[in-house]
Amino acid sequence: MEITMLYYLIPSLIMFACGVYGFITRKNMIAILISLELMLNSVDINFVVFNRFLFPEQMEGMFFTLFAIAIAAAETALAIAIIINVFRVSNDIDVREVNKMKF
C-alpha cells in the first residue's frame, strides 16, 4: 500500500481547522498564541509534503520549513514577553481587557 499525499494533508487540514477555531473562539492570549502556533505548524507540514511529493530531489521545502520554525520561535518569544508585560499592567490576559487599557 502506497502512502499518498492525502495521508499527510488530512491531518494538516484538521490541525489548521483546530487552530482557526481556537484563534477565533478563545479570549485568553496564551490560548490564542497556541492556536496560532498550531496553524503555523500545519502550514510547515504542507511545505514539507508538497516538496517531498512534487520535487523529491530538491530540499527547498525542508529549508523553508526550518526558517519558518525559527521565525515562529522568535515570534513566540516576543509574544510571550508582550503577554507578560500586559499581565503586569492589568493582572489579566483576557483580550477584551487589553482593549480597554490605555497606555
SSE topology sketch:
Layout: H1 6-25, H2 29-54, H3 60-90, H4 95-100
Helix pairs in contact: 1-2, 2-3
Q: Give the tally of structural domains.
A: 1
Count of helix runs: 4
- CATH class placement: Mainly Alpha
N-to-C SSE string, H for helix and E for strand: HHHH
**What is the overall pLDDT average?**
89
CATH topology: Helix Hairpins
- Major sheet: none
Our estimate of the beta-strand percent is: under 5%
> How would you describe the shape?
elongated
Distance between the termini: 60 Å
Tell me the Rg in angstroms.
17 Å
* Strand tally: 0
Oligomer: single chain
Q: Under the CATH scheme, which architecture would be assigned?
A: Orthogonal Bundle
Backbone structural class? mainly alpha
Uncertain parts: none
Could you estimate the helical fraction of the residues in percent? over 70%
Brief rundown of the structure:
With 103 residues, this protein is mainly alpha-helical.
Tell me what the structure shows:
This protein has 103 residues and is mainly alpha-helical. It has one domain (6-100): Helix Hairpins. Helix content is 81%, strand content 0%. The protein contains 4 helices and no strands. It is elongated and about 55 Å long.
